[in-house]
Amino acid sequence: ASRGLGRAMTHGFIDAGLTVVGCARMQEAIAELSRQFAPPNRFQVVDVSDHQQVGKWAEATLREFGPPDLLINSAAVINKNAPLWQVSPDEFSRVVDVNVKGVHNTIYHLVPSMIQRGRGVIVNFSSYWGRSTASDVAAYCTTKWAIEGLSRGLADDLPPGMASVALNPGVIHTDMLESCFAEGAASYPGPQQWASVAVPYILQLGPEDNGQAVTVPEF
């Protein structure tokens, strides 16, 4: 929730009257969010790739708020531009740990409560590169293609009344895009402009969208 699309969605959902319970790795950013948005909104330092951290955070969240109506998995990192054979095992593992295992961690700890209640939507952020490929970002593509399969597989397991969706947010000017496109990233819309379209779009997703691979409309 601390930057990029997550930060923009936080603003958008709160402006729409929702309560946001979010996390990020950076203490300073979480402190800033906590100052900006009063309770019942709550923000906490959590590394989604750490199963134990997610478990403690989820337990506290469920105790205070109950099951989420909407679970958004948007945390992601990207490898430094390089052919796959030049991406180190440590860097490859980090991309997988955040982008794939991080999604499983939140699903593992939060979705059972949603199933028990019988409703809820899970939105897993994919990418344009979750349905295509490009040079120098094979590690990232690997994880986003995985999210497409994970989301559809999860959809097959969910009971009626729930949904799992793989969401391609589109191409937005973020720090991540700058790491790939350098100065060219500035030609794309920013997160706030994106969120003005994405937040209403996400909020209208429902059980009828279960298993779908969707894309935020052009903005």
- Number of β-strand runs: 6
Distance between the termini: 22 Å
From the spread of the alpha carbons, the general shape counts as globular
Radius of gyration: 17 Å
Q: What is the N-to-C succession of helices and strands? A: HEHEHEHEHEHHE
Helical content stands at 40-55%
Main structural class: alpha/beta
How is the largest sheet built, in terms of strand order?
3-4-5-6
Total helices: the number is: 7
Pick out the low-confidence regions.
none
Instruction: Average the pLDDT over all residues and give the rounded result.
Output: 94
Residue fraction in strands: 5-15%
> For the report, how would you describe the main beta sheet?
4 strands, parallel
TL;DR of this structure?
The chain is an alpha/beta fold and 219 residues long. Helices cover 48% and strands 13% of the residues. The chain has seven helices and six strands, in the order αβαβαβαβαβααβ.
Question: What does it look like?
Answer:
- This protein has 219 residues and is an alpha/beta fold.
- Helix content is 48%, strand content 13%.
- The protein has seven helices and six strands; from the N terminus they run H-E-H-E-H-E-H-E-H-E-H-H-E.
- Strands 3-4-5-6 form a four-stranded parallel β-sheet, covered by helices on one side. The protein has a two-stranded parallel ribbon with strand order 1-2.
- Strand 3, helix 4 and strand 4 (120-125) form a beta-alpha-beta unit.
- The longest helix has 29 residues, at 89-117.
- The relative contact order is 0.15.
- The model has no long low-confidence stretch (mean pLDDT 94).
